[in-house]
Amino acid sequence: MKLFPVYKTLAYVVGTLLLALALGMICKYLFPEGGSVQSFGETLTPIVAVGHGWIYMAYVVAAFFLSQRAGWKLAFLGLMLLAGLVPGLIFWVERRVEAKIRAEVPALVS
C-alpha cells in the first residue's frame, strides 16, 4: 500500500471534520441559547471533535512517515501538522505536499 494516498485521504477527512467542527462551534456559541441552531451546534460539536481527534492522530502518523520517506525537513512536517488544526488550511497544504512530492519523490505517488 502506498503511503501518499493514505495521507491524502486522511488530510481530506481531517480537513472536512475540522470545518464541520468550526461550523458546530459557531452554531453553539454565536446563536441565541435555546434555539434550534444553538442546539444543533451543541449536538454536533462533541461528536465531530472526538472524530477529528482520533483521525488527526492517524494523520500525524501518516504525515510523519511520509515526510521521513521523502526526506523533508522538520519545519515542513510542522506545517503539515499545523494544517490539521487550522480550519481550511489543510486543503492548501495538501496541494503543496502533492506538488512537492511529485517534483521531488515521484516514486511515492505512483
Automatic annotation (TrEMBL):
The keyword Cell membrane applies. Residues 6-97 form the DUF3817 domain. It comes from Nocardioides phosphati. It is found in: Cell membrane. InterPro entries: DUF3817_TM. This is Membrane protein. Its main location: membrane. Keywords: Cell membrane, Membrane, Transmembrane, Transmembrane helix. Signal peptide: none annotated. It is a multi-pass membrane protein. The chain crosses the membrane at residues 12-31, 43-66, 72-93. It holds the Pfam family DUF3817. The lineage of its organism: Bacteria, Bacillati, Actinomycetota, Actinomycetes, Propionibacteriales.
